[in-house]
Amino acid sequence: MRPVLAAALPHFGEEPPLTGERGAGTIFFAGCNLRCVYCQNHQISHGRLGEPVSSEDLAEIMLDLERKGCATLEPVSPSHHLPGLLEALAIARDRGLNLPLVYNTNAYESPEILNLLGGIVDVYLPDLKYASNYFSREYSAVSDYVEISRAAVKAMHAQVGNLVLDLHGHAVRGLIIRHLVLPENVAGTDETLRWIKENLPETVTLSLMAQYSPLHEAKQFSRLDRRITRREYDGIVDLAWEMGFENAFVQEFTSQDVGIPDFELNKPFCWD
Ligand code: SF4
């Protein structure tokens, strides 16, 4: 089955080692294996906006992102389109594609998928979203998120290790664990940081994201109907330092003011 492509563009809002000077080569596919009520990409993740694309055409899109000077190639939440993605990637590699492959995922990935990706993915970029299955069920429609995501992140680190940069500061290999801070500690940030500390090296790279905005259906849920406060975010950054994490990307608090992505207009968006 052909993957359904929603957008492909240089994206300047990712972590600096993924973005470089000319953007991360992001490829957005339609659909998602979670149903987050606050999804900022809901037009494509829930609405399935997009067009089917052949492996040949997708390979050309990848090569075009490299020609534009992108530092990395970054498919976003792609696991349900994996056959088409891998076929296109093989074609593009045969034609000289040299960009590191960044796998941007909500971390709800099976061991089978991750085995398949061994030796293909260079950088894993999972967002470790919850420390509670109650909240993952309430807000993302899966009741086993904690076990699945934690096992997946451990498997990712076993595959690629800590983040490695080249001489230009661009990512070539490794793991960056994202964590989107949610209001009322719905994301269980303290518990997630503790789990990371107990299960992975303190030198693992974190990315603590402040950009939450009550989009899509979030206003219908009392815990999620506001942005996080500066105090909440600063407290979490302080906690990460106190816990001894040595490598963390921290967002400017003003990143909350970034525009809402509108895929129907094909506008790029930033979170920092
Ligand atoms: S995992 Fe990300 S893309 Fe998927 S529904 Fe949740 S917020 Fe949206």
In short:
This protein is α/β, with parallel strands linked by helices.
Structure overview:
The protein is α/β, with parallel strands linked by helices. α3 (55-67) crosses α4. The strands form two sheets. Strands 5, 6, 7, 8, 9 and 10 form a six-stranded mixed sheet that branches. It has a four-stranded mixed sheet with strand order 3-1-2-4, covered by helices on one side. The protein starts with a strand and ends in a 22-residue tail after the last strand. It is built from nine helices and ten strands. The protein is globular. Bound molecules: iron/sulfur cluster (SF4).
Please count the helical segments. 9
Termini separation comes to 35 Å
Number of strands: 10
Structural class: alpha/beta
Bound molecules: iron/sulfur cluster
The succession of helices and strands, N to C, reads EHEHEHEHEHEHHEEHEHE
Multimeric status of the protein: single chain
Mean pLDDT: 93
Largest sheet: 6 strands, mixed
Question: Spans with pLDDT under 50 lasting ≥5 residues?
Answer: 265-272
The percent range for helix content is 25-40%
What is the radius of gyration computed over CA atoms, rounded to a whole number of angstroms? 17 Å
Strand content: 15-25%
Overall outline: globular
